[in-house]
Amino acid sequence: MDRLELKALGKINLGLDVLGRRENGYHDVRMVMQTVYLYDRIIIKKKKTPGIELETNLYYLPVNENNLAYQAAKMLMDEFHIEEGVSIQLEKHIPVAAGMAGGSSNAAAVLFGINRMFSLGLTQKELMERGVKLGADVPYCIMRGTVLAEGIGEILTPLSPMPKCYVLIAKPTVSVSTKMVYEKLDSHEIENHPDIDGILEGLEKQDLKKIAHSMGNVLERVTVDAYPVIDKIKETMIKEGALNAMMSGSGPTVFGLFEEKSAAKKAAAKIREEKLTRQVYVTNIHNARRK
Ligand code: ATP
Q: Which one of 37, 202, 228, 246 is separated from 116 by 20 to 30 angstroms, measured CA to CA?
């Protein structure tokens, strides 16, 4: 196997709660994660000369050790003393620094790909143990689907799959620092915790409306205070028929859940028309786990 083409899928959070802060700065979370069919394309090729070569369509992304895809390849190639080299082509579509785990998903895909390409024989669990060293969301991106993530995000419990629906994703042009969001969150008591159990109950009953109405993200208030455009996008999605709309992760990406694709498309057009952002995608949920 000299060439492998992979899809690195993005995620949304149906729920995100923060339970506490650890000494080392990490936070204990309780999140419901959902994979969506918005993906980066990754092509890995073997090359005769040693080393890792990375290229990407986004000029502002690093192509060295600072790229998570690079780090993932290096981690396995060092551990297994792989003499040959690899070239990695990374075609980004998942919004960057947006709360959709784009970098983590790239790392997960590369771990999966290198393991397969060089027949390393690592199990999914062994890939996850390595992945968490690259980022808290990497183990989830290896697993995919509808999952409850606890601990720092690495303790995963697979859940009943999310019922079929359409997802409208809108990424405002503001840049959000995840560090800043968590620092602000830490500066005061959390008064309203989202109803994570309500989401779990909705999934159990396969009740899309119950899931949508239980959605909540404790980081949303912090980010919306800094960027009111997030609220405007949410309002537009709901006015246009979304069952509910919410910010994903630490933002600024907003997603809305729709029963009808036509309504999602109409809402997308409205968001562009009102010049809230141009980075808008209509997609659907992706429930298949990685084999
Ligand atoms: P999360 O949802 O896990 O918080 P995110 O959407 O906030 O992730 P990413 O898109 O993963 O953030 O990227 C955040 C930063 O990481 C970027 O500013 C970028 O410079 C760096 N980075 C490193 N490797 C990658 C990669 N493969 N894709 C995107 N960003 C990367």
A: 37
